[in-house]
Amino acid sequence: MNRKICAVITARPSYSRVKTALQAIKDHTKLELQLVVAGSALLDRYGNTIDFIEKDGFTINEKVFMVLEGENKTAMAKTTGLGVMELANVFYNLQPDAVLTIADRFETIATSIAAAYQNIPLVHLQGGEVTGNIDEKVRHANTKLADIHLVASEDAKKRVEKMGENPNCVFNTGCPSLDIAAQVLKAPKLDFNPIEKYGGVGGNISAKGDYLVVMQHPVTNEYKAARENVLKTLRVIDDLNIPTFWFWPNVDAGADGTSNGIRSYREINKPKNIHFFKNMESVDFLKLLVNSKCLVGNSSVGIRECSFLGVPVVNIGTRQNRRLRGENVIDIDYNEDAIKNAIKLQLANPKKTKSNIYGNGDSGKKIAEVLANTDLNFHKTIMY
Amino acid sequence: MNRKICAVITARPSYSRVKTALQAIKDHTKLELQLVVAGSALLDRYGNTIDFIEKDGFTINEKVFMVLEGENKTAMAKTTGLGVMELANVFYNLQPDAVLTIADRFETIATSIAAAYQNIPLVHLQGGEVTGNIDEKVRHANTKLADIHLVASEDAKKRVEKMGENPNCVFNTGCPSLDIAAQVLKAPKLDFNPIEKYGGVGGNISAKGDYLVVMQHPVTNEYKAARENVLKTLRVIDDLNIPTFWFWPNVDAGADGTSNGIRSYREINKPKNIHFFKNMESVDFLKLLVNSKCLVGNSSVGIRECSFLGVPVVNIGTRQNRRLRGENVIDIDYNEDAIKNAIKLQLANPKKTKSNIYGNGDSGKKIAEVLANTDLNFHKTIMY
Amino acid sequence: MNRKICAVITARPSYSRVKTALQAIKDHTKLELQLVVAGSALLDRYGNTIDFIEKDGFTINEKVFMVLEGENKTAMAKTTGLGVMELANVFYNLQPDAVLTIADRFETIATSIAAAYQNIPLVHLQGGEVTGNIDEKVRHANTKLADIHLVASEDAKKRVEKMGENPNCVFNTGCPSLDIAAQVLKAPKLDFNPIEKYGGVGGNISAKGDYLVVMQHPVTNEYKAARENVLKTLRVIDDLNIPTFWFWPNVDAGADGTSNGIRSYREINKPKNIHFFKNMESVDFLKLLVNSKCLVGNSSVGIRECSFLGVPVVNIGTRQNRRLRGENVIDIDYNEDAIKNAIKLQLANPKKTKSNIYGNGDSGKKIAEVLANTDLNFHKTIMY
Amino acid sequence: MNRKICAVITARPSYSRVKTALQAIKDHTKLELQLVVAGSALLDRYGNTIDFIEKDGFTINEKVFMVLEGENKTAMAKTTGLGVMELANVFYNLQPDAVLTIADRFETIATSIAAAYQNIPLVHLQGGEVTGNIDEKVRHANTKLADIHLVASEDAKKRVEKMGENPNCVFNTGCPSLDIAAQVLKAPKLDFNPIEKYGGVGGNISAKGDYLVVMQHPVTNEYKAARENVLKTLRVIDDLNIPTFWFWPNVDAGADGTSNGIRSYREINKPKNIHFFKNMESVDFLKLLVNSKCLVGNSSVGIRECSFLGVPVVNIGTRQNRRLRGENVIDIDYNEDAIKNAIKLQLANPKKTKSNIYGNGDSGKKIAEVLANTDLNFHKTIMY
């Protein structure tokens, strides 16, 4: 009998990150993939991730509506509580041999609790990293609830082990988001017109010359500052007047601030050099990135994919603090002059060094192998 | 303005454990206690803990009904999810400066999430210990969600720090359950008739001569074995024919197994030497304990209070595995002969050595001092 | 394609009442039965109805744990809210052609909402009757949410139609609980020893001579009086000193009062002429009833089954107020003398007249026929 | 002691409708208003009703986030279930003497259940009317759960009584939405520039000449047709080329269809004669209405306020079917030609007859008087 591995996808970036791992699980002769799509991944206004998942050929076993409207911290907590209740049912019905929880978004702990409390072995992807917000707490709590750890770097592996996890249960499989990056590196040409293919709103810019890409997410602990911060970046980008493809943030307690900032800036200033997208297929997105002059913002894409691809990055603010990074990144505070100068620096002397700190582009397969061959157990004690 | 400290009591043993800390918070000139009584602490069939709390003079700010009936693992998970949703409301309304979550029962993570996700500094009591079930996962996940750690031993302190917590936020305050034990040690005379005062059911035994005390809880991961295990202890105790005061287990996924085992054994065998209680005031319970010949079962009381009091203990099974213990304890498996022999050994050559590994009897005050004077913060990153 | 009829069983008495209808649906060539067992029907301490359901040969499609502990009115409301959330999932997954909600227990409105709000045709069983508590409100609200009405008497039919329901959608199928009564009437001999077969607790009485049966439920609106009321009946029955088989009440907001009253009376007074049961198979129960001298209490069994069977009834209090009744019933208040006199009257001059006001014993089949052949629709407007 | 009347506002139109009643309750010497704002009334993307409430000088006692994202029927059911759970807490804490539930939106039944199940007298506003969707079921179920009925017309009064409600508990107070209309009739001049004051998006039109107003809501049972229907109206209005102020629909299971229809039509066709608003203060809205040539759509405003104000209405589709209406209304199907002709007819020969079928403009005060002086009771039985 094949091992049933139940993965819970709760948001767009989580899906992009683990897509090749899901494919490798699906394709593995000893494994059966059970796919649960939940939370904002089901919702239209966060980019209908579920449509991409289905287009990629995955069968969805269960859909879990759990996002409570409100976009404040209380709603975030209650969404998580609701997620525990709903996912407890789902796992009870699907009876998986192991459950996969991904990284550190606030609602991922719902997956962890619903599995761990029902004595289902829990596999945590991408533990052991360091940031500095609520996701920091969530990530390490996920580690302590999990039985198997699939981490993305040696750095992360050491950290998970030091927290008292059994080294036999910690595997550095690299980050599966690099698997797609590795494919893109083999055929990096931008072979589509982004606006024609993806619509979006804003200036009708071209991707044929130099252009920038921006991804800026709200930072949970700085909820009120989200709007102000995104306005700084908007003014800099508007002022630089270089064609720029800007991606909307994913859902978070601060989503409202960032999204509202963008919306009102657009209405009033109508910046002609910026085009806004909600979402893009991973391969297309990485092609857009690899051909860009620089990624600006605070996305983890700047830390992972861009280090592997050798794309220059201007990383703003604290969101990626203490994450292991390559030499392609310039770190900068939320200061308009500083942001502008950093972008100019990357345009003049681009930092394009590639590195393999987050894997070699074969993580999906490594992950499937671990899941097929490791002992699955839900009974653990701290090591020391 | 006084700091508002919101403590959430979800079960009888949690209350007993922290009672002196609650009192010290209430009495502290710089602190204001907000008390939330939740879960099984509200329920009649788990001993109406709330009545004891009110009789002790505490004002209850909120009651949270969250226990979903079912007594299986799915219900346990859903109770936790419901707890997150309810407690999110409670904290939103009470606006505490810090929330106190206690130890490692499954539903304590609901308190942790509801506080942490709303950016309320979280204080975790009794982290850093080692057991081997779902409470092991819960305890360490609570640690990773918490900002301040009040641990009960040097052993626990080291463990919490090694998990990457900031040593400035880890305080060895000892276990407040010993504060009551310290009072009892000063006046240990059994000055009441247990059956007269507390009713209960079973044989009409006397506490004037030699007697035993039994507390045996179900072990979550061995759900189905709970009934069988308690029957072993019942047969041994029945057979030994020494007057025995037996305390019902607290609620857990296996409560049913243990409770059913006891109920059916009683109906059929009507053991004359055993009297059963649901609950007892802490001071009375400790007096009963300090005058007993031996505590039998798997309660943490055998590890903590009894080490401080110098009461001999026969500790059965895995529930207290790897907990730091004094020299008063004999550890034994679920084997009837072994249990019987261990009890006989403690009767013949009682191990009465006292120790201070879990504190000196002043933990409540130490806890209040830390809460009054430490910086409260909800922003942390792992240390290494 | 067969019509999928999804029935939701939430409690022991609901199951007994509709068992033959479920069987007829299951057996019908044009229908497929989807069975959901929920609420107290899943719980050990309410008699493990689910075991009886499975023993009767039904396949259970979904189990829904939704009972929030607390046994107060707030918990009752929250159990209902939780039920809506859970059953919404269940119906989404099962995609039935119609949902069956039964009678008027508080949680049945959860079934109604979860179906109606998802545009699933809702069939309500046993609407149009009259009582006087929260179940009165629930019953008629169920009627207004339902599309098809299967009522148990002409009286009820008129009432449902007068509320504005389309007469084409109201069917007097009789009460299916009488189907079993009709079988029992054909072979009424008490061919088993109740205590041997069902255990229970209390006096070791015989069913060979004269005996009484008691069923007394708490009345929601008189929550605090439940304990007092049951004590009155207990004292009368104890005093009369006739062998009596007493059935525990089902779960309700007042269950605690009634159950506690019984428990404490038993502990203190140890009445030798009373034996207590939690549950009994329907056929056996009806045999016990048909051979008894009188049914005492406030159960609807006294109104329905006993009118059909011609069993004398002493009906106490307001719980069955305004229900259509046969000539077998003496109605009486909660007054010890009155209760005692009424029982004596039934013993001396038993009222044994049979009637068919609640059907002819073929309701199950009638219900299945309606479900197989009526237009199913979820769009209705009030008639006048 | 003043009677505490707890009103639950769950959506923008509900607030507009009862605003003067809330004011009259607040101002009444024998009453105390407890205001709970819940559901979409709290949410930014449904027009931030809460801001209007606060600006109107009301104190909000509790906020209840309960809207589950998803905009499908399952989410609608689950939102309702969640509402029951949350509101049960709220009423437990506020301990009102009566709870006010308003009209027939799907989530209003949550208010009804949470009150009725806790034995709090329930007052239902605007029962007894007729429509034809899920709100039809909800409205009458609310009636059956309620103890006091405050209806808006003689027609509605008869219907509620015929459903078996006690005539002593049914009061025709008229519709409080007309109270504001009565004020506006006294000073009907359009003394503000709508676009300057309220922003909004779309063509920069003037309210100085002739103009139309459109309000079109999705109809729950025709979920998929919502988009198509709104496009018909959009094309007609675009084609007529008369300045038109268009109001976005409120939240419903079909909100997405209607809103998406509007959004995509705007993006593609950029109609110059239409300006879109999310919300407007009631008085301003009624001034805009009273000076308009015609109201187009399916809003109940066309039936109530416009009959009182004598504003011509083109009412499209089934949403207002069987509602009592004045002579100002032309009813029409979703047919582009028919809609266009009806509007032209109203422009050429406007139907401006005023009527008092929904009250005289003093409903708020009448409602407060009933609440101050009627017996409050939670125990009822059907009348016949």
Automatic annotation (TrEMBL), chains A, B, C, D:
Sorted UniProt keywords: Glycosidase, Hydrolase
GO molecular function, one term: hydrolase activity, acting on glycosyl bonds
Keyword Hydrolase: yes
Recorded superkingdom: Bacteria
Keyword Hydrolase appears in the UniProt entry: yes
Occurrences of domain UDP-N-acetylglucosamine 2-epimerase (ranges): 23-371
EC code: 3.2.1.183
Membrane-spanning parts: none
CDD domains for the chain: GTB_UDP-GlcNAc_2-Epimerase (cd03786)
Broad enzyme group: hydrolase
Protein name per UniProt: UDP-N-acetylglucosamine 2-epimerase
Organism ancestry: Bacteria, Pseudomonadati, Bacteroidota, Flavobacteriia, Flavobacteriales
Name of the gene encoding the protein in the UniProt record: neuC
